[in-house]
């Protein structure tokens, strides 16, 4: 590997690969008449969201109101879905302020959340579109049954300042048939009660190439595809050559023949394992396992000789790209091995 | 729990507890004539380092040059040991610039590192003190044998711009006798070659109350004791009432009787398990396990009824305090349940 004149550890983003990933998946969605609404949690960069929109995305997905604010502040965003139960007067005030600047929708899975939103929007000029979040098996948020989804849709439509906008699910991996059955039952109940279901929003990266197997969904939310990562390579969703984000690290110690220490630890690579063995893939060195991280050290071991020297750089595809782009204030944009420029990660650390 | 008027998720620091932890451990060190050099990686806050120094700490420990710069920029720091192999002309130039403002020492475990430091400091007015890092069993960095430590000490003293300052180890837990044997053998070899060993620096939080069992060490480095965390409670090093740092989160969904979802995920609590079951301890609710995190969601489950309501706050002692204080730009200082003020985490994300 050519030594890059970049201070390490650093998070690199190969723009050629990222742009190709965005175009390729947009093409897939276009072929299947699926409306793509990328989740910005992976890159947290307004200019990359603008690129996604320019390629044909219908809007973006954010998880928190502060993320949405950062994206609107940093670029031309068009339309935002916040897939989160927004609670509390401070956050709902911010939501209302932002909704006056850009089309915005949110989700809810309980009457408590609906009541809070209604309180905040009852005097607004336009009703806030709210999707009912449905638990189709991932057991995170979401109403538990199609009947409960229909009930909450009715509550939403009776709530001043709000408008039922559809169904949203964060589905479990490889369960399209089950998810489709759940959502179509909910949709039928709601339609039977006289209410339209304009949007059915599904998503998830592991199943990204099978999104068309659930034609019921009108929108697909996906984040990781822009950068990809080791977890998606392990699932055979992509290849390492499709991974746009990597961590550049320097070997700082080679204390024994089969062990080397790098200057990237959990403060860059994070402790996310996602069921994998080790904390990342060292490009060109499938024989190496990153078996241990402390905050500023990564330990590389292998059965044979590690063959690395102090001062040498290594490039690592992390297990989980989204969390890595949340660790540093900036990422370095590249084109192949050519360094372009560092950019501030505008929506980094936005957890409110 | 009284509801706090703080936007969640938030990292809270109870200053009464933090100050008590600092004073209590300084007292212990004073009783045992141990020089305490706290590691700032836990709090990353210049004003807390100043408090540690005011109570009797002899200086501070940083892991990276950028951390040391942030601490010097933000407070009156006195003396800094950077326990890291500093490599590359850019970082070594910064090291030299900083060494003109404040007494600074570093470590090295190879000739490559020593040569780089010597290149950078050979024209400096004062030699840079360098400790030899010793691998006494933790198998991270460090020379492998006492003989290798003695050899590197000799190389250091023959290197223009540098001065051998002693031995440093990041020891494995509960192995004081083995570590002492290793370090005393190295010391004896170096002394026999006619060189003084001014400093022997050991450290580690799990063994903090047994630091006096290795009187060979002249300095003790420790970070986590200022905040403590669930991992140290599990090791019986402290109690939950000694934990100064907590994460305040809000319940955003209670989708079933034994499951609740909070607005703090891995972007606040991190995925560090440290061998524990779950991602943190919910104060007052030992029956709850935080069994799953995604970036913005934490899942709380329990065998019985979860008994939480949407909108309710919970306070969590994280598994690992150091990494949590690296996640957000600011922490909220408290005194008991009284909110004092937010402070910027000056050395957050400083990985260079």
Structure explained in plain terms:
2 copies of one chain form a homodimer. Chain A is α/β, with parallel strands linked by helices and 352 residues long. Chain A has 2 domains: 15-230, TIM Barrel; 235-344, Beta Barrel (Lyase, Ornithine Decarboxylase, Chain A, domain 1). Chain A has helices spanning 15-31, 46-55, 65-74, 89-99, 111-121, 146-157, 176-192, 230-234, 266-269, 321-324; strands at 10-14, 35-38, 60-62, 80-85, 104-108, 128-134, 162-169, 199-203, 219-222, 245-256, 259-262, 281-282, 289-293, 298-301, 313-317, 330-335, 338-344. In chain A, strand 3, helix 3 and strand 4 form a beta-alpha-beta unit. In chain A, helix 3 (65-74) packs parallel to helix 4, helix 4 crosses helix 5 and helix 6 packs across helix 7. Chain A is elongated, with a radius of gyration of 22 Å. Chain A starts with 9 loop residues before the first strand and ends in an 8-residue tail after the last strand.
* CATH superfamily (homologous) name of the largest domain in chain A: Alanine racemase
CATH architecture of the largest domain in chain A: Alpha-Beta Barrel
Strand element count of chain A: 17
Percent strand of chain A: 25-35%
CATH fold topology of the largest domain in chain A: TIM Barrel
Oligomer: homodimer
Biggest protein-protein contact in the assembly: A-B, 59 and 59 residues
Taking pLDDT < 50 over at least 5 consecutive residues as the criterion, the unreliable ranges of chain A are none
Rg of chain A over CA atoms, rounded to whole Å, is 22 Å
Number of helices, counting only DSSP H or I runs of 4 residues or more of chain A: 10
End-to-end gap of chain A = 40 Å
